[in-house]
Amino acid sequence: MKVLIWDESLSVQIQEIDDDHRKLVDLFNILGQSIEEESSSDYIEAVLEELISCTDWHFKHEERLMLKYGYQGLVAHKAEHQELINSAKAVQQKFLQQNGMISNEDIAFLEQWLTGHILGADIEMGSYLGEVM
Ligand SMILES: [Fe+2]
Q1: Cystine design at 27: which of 51, 61, 76, 107 (Cβ 3.0–4.6 Å)?
Q2: DSSP 51-92
Q3: What percent of the chain has pLDDT above 90?
Q4: CA 31, 35, 41 angle in degrees (round to 5)?
Q5: Taking ligand 1, which is a single-atom ion, which protein residues have CB atoms under 5 Å away?
């Protein structure tokens, strides 16, 4: 299982957002590790739930900042968040229906999900916020 490392390449140059992203990367790695170590499905389920609820909270954090600082891309960014949460919940549902099985494809998908959004929409938002905050 590849471990995700938070480094400067993932920075959006806004401290409070980077702090959240570090936490999400940590949780992602805890999830990967629990699958690799074949932890109990109850444990994996708990980690998945924690990852999704932290992500949900983090998205609301970003959305509040975008609203406060009048970011033009708010609606599109919010829609991307909604899509990401829906996809992650679909992985979670699949996990629950398959009696605690999670595939490598699902993990690769979640990894792409996390880094893709940070490197795209979040960096763009960060460069705006960095000028106005
Ligand atoms: Fe975002």
Answers
A1: 51
A2: HHHHHHHHHHHHHHHHHHTT-TTHHHHHHHHHHHHHHHHHHH
A3: 85
A4: 95
A5: 62, 122
Q: What are the residue ranges in the chain where pLDDT is below 70? A: 1-2
User: How many residues would you count in the chain?
Assistant: 133
| Residue 108 amino acid letter | A
Ligand 1 center–CA 99 separation, angstroms: 31
How many angstroms is it from 108 CA to the middle of ligand 1?
Answer: 19
- Per CATH, the architecture of 22-132 is what? Up-down Bundle (1.20)
CA of 32 to the centre of ligand 1 (A): 22
Find the 66 Cα to ligand 1 centroid distance in Å.
10
Q: What is the pLDDT of residues 86-107, one digit of tens each?
A: 999 999 999 999 878 888 888 8
Determine the straight-line distance between the first and last CA of the chain, rounded to whole angstroms: 38
